[in-house]
Fold:
Amino acid sequence: MERDMTPDESLRLIESMIGQAKKSFSRMSFYFLLWGVLLIGAMIATYIMRDAPPGPVQGAAWGVAGLIGGILSSIHGARQGKREPVNNPMDRVIGWLWGAFVITLLITIACTVPHHRDPGPMITLLTGLPTFMTGQILRFRPLIIGGMLFWFAGIIMHFTDDVLLLTVLYCSAMFFGYIVPGLMLKRQENVLRPA
Amino acid sequence: MSFAPLDPLLHNQLRLAVVSLLVGVDSAEFTFIVESTGATRGNISVQITKLKEAGYISVTKSFRDNYPLTTCKLTAKGLRAFEKYVEAIRGYLDK
Structure:
């Protein structure tokens, strides 16, 4: 690579290297798989306990899933952060996006649960946003479609009280919006950058 | 017609590749730069030293899992030089 370049070659080289640096290097499949499994588990547990008296017992599964997911995500994130070969603004944007989503999620829960309103449909709608955007940033179509599925499921969930239908919709959105893209992303990550 | 002189330090394919790469990131490990440019470790090492001596990049040496870890970051001086270089290149292309 030791030679002088024409101005045109210089500009093309600059564009190509900047383009390369813009790519996201996050290994995100872990989070989608972890949260997909935990939240499907929480939804199924909630369905099984549907006849339990209203109160903390009904929401316990979500609390446990949130706690386990939060702890494991934090540990994995801290380990992963130390191993990333590059600190990239795109990865930071993805981090802030999901951070903002979690804050919105907590506010939604705090505003609905005390009034005995189900936060599920709104949370499902909200989940579509970071999933869709992450897909766009990573240029990964399964996540873009996953985000749309959350929007679709969230809309239908707003118009039904059928607990079985709500459970099926939420679990399907999680399976096709988190777990399937998570598995595909994992395969892609292993091909591009072995751990 | 006069042309703005091109920074000789940046008007080199490998050094320009390294600086362009660092423009798009906060910091990058040595191995990432080697992989992205496709150059040899020795060659990259030489060019990084030249860029560091010019104050265009800062180099941090540390350890990870008992292995040496070299991280590079573009400095404000390096960014200014890069912007000036791009401006000069555009001048050549426009004329």
User: Anything to note?
Assistant: Chain A touches chain B at residues 1-5, 7-11, 13-14, 16-22, 82-83, 85-89, 92 (CB under 8 Å). Chain A has a mean pLDDT of 88.
